[in-house]
Amino acid sequence: MSVVVTGATGHLGRLVVSSLLARGLPAHSITATGRDTAKATDLVERGVTVTPADFDDPAALRAAFAGADTVLLVSGNEVGGRVAQHRNAVEAAKEVGVGHLVYTSLLRADVSTLPLAPEHKATEEIITASGLPHTLLRNGFYNEVYLDRIDHAREHGAVVGSAGEGRVAGAARADLAEAAAVVLLDPSAHVGAVYELVGDRSWTYADLAAAIGEVLGRTVPYQDLGPREHREVLLRAGLDEGTADFLVGLDAGIREGELHGEPGILSGLIGRPTTPLATTLRSRA
Ligand SMILES: NC(=O)c1ccc[n+]([C@@H]2O[C@H](COP(=O)([O-])OP(=O)(O)OC[C@H]3O[C@@H](n4cnc5c(N)ncnc54)[C@H](OP(=O)(O)O)[C@@H]3O)[C@@H](O)[C@H]2O)c1
Question: How far apart are CA 183 and CA 188, in angstroms?
Fold first, then answer.
């Protein structure tokens, strides 16, 4: 079978390619795409075909997807421009007759109030309307998203936020990538599925602070601020208004349970327990 992985010049896509190789798919059966293919020379060295394909370039997408049995559409990172870009990818997959399209979406994308959700929901609707056999991987937040809190806690002595007691069922990128590889390698078992993918153990920001404290070898408290004060702290730290509003909006979503989910599907797909948050944090410290 032949598989195309978009976003393979980024963190998640690269891990998916590694998982496909580790699970026995020959390198010559894999095409890795992205924009800046210079970032994927290691994949070329492993025998993977690396092809530039910008989501804004339908002809390049068609060329990259031609002949593929399965395409993994890793959501792009140009927030605000992704619906049109993803539509290009879906249309290209349809035009060249891809047999299975897999998309990395967001946890409960159809109902989530997170500021990131609308682009994922719209993409899911485009995929469903395309009629292509597909699988939706609704990824929870990466544990790695919280790695920069280590540096922040080292500098300021605390984890700060406005998520209250909200729980995050985060997952290591590598676990989500492995789940994607499992799905890509066995289309008939997963076509039509919508998987909500979260780690086995969820945690609050107080738990995150405690875990960071263990990594740093000192007590790190969680300071829960109201949304307004949180925003002011972020602006004083030098963030622009858009970013501050985005981060406060994310914490509001966490407070409402938007990043919490039922465990079991991710560990079931990868056939082992998911990687604990502490393991991810220790990898950076
Ligand atoms: N679940 C989470 O916690 C979480 C967190 C952050 C992001 N995400 C989402 O998950 C995706 C994958 O995560 P990641 O950590 O691997 O992100 P990443 O390292 O930023 O990788 C993003 C990938 O998207 C590619 N891309 C962006 N714009 C493109 C375009 N116009 N045409 C073609 N390729 C394009 C990039 O290619 P180049 O680098 O070659 O330009 C890169 O390979 C992100 O893009 C984002 O949608 C999820």
Answer: 9
Rounded Cα distance, 212 and 3, in Å? 38
Any ligand 1 atom below 6 A from CB of 105: no
Domains, the chain, in order of start with CATH, read 3-139 (3.40.50.720)
All residue ranges of the chain with pLDDT < 50 are none
CB atoms within 10 A of CB 22: 10
Residue 57 tokens, joined: 């370039």
Q: Atom 12 of ligand 1 has which residue's CA nearest to it?
A: 12
> What spacing in Å lies between the alpha carbon of 285 and ligand 1's midpoint?
24
Which pLDDT belongs to residue 284? 79
State residue 285's pLDDT score.
63
Is ligand 1 within 6 A of the CB of residue 35? Answer: yes
Q: Say if ligand 1 is within 6 A of residue 79 CB.
A: no
Q: Would you state the pLDDT for residue 194?
A: 98
Q: Identify the residue whose C-alpha is closest to ligand 1 atom 23.
A: 7
- What are the backbone dihedrals phi and psi of residue 222, each rounded to the nearest 5 degrees, phi first? -100, 125
**Is there an atom of ligand 1 within 6 Å of 36 CB?**
yes
Measured CA distances, 241 to 93, 117, 230, 244 (Å): 38, 20, 12, 5
Q: Is 78 in the pocket of ligand 1 (CB under 6 A)?
A: yes
Cβ pair 162, 224 in contact under 8 A: yes
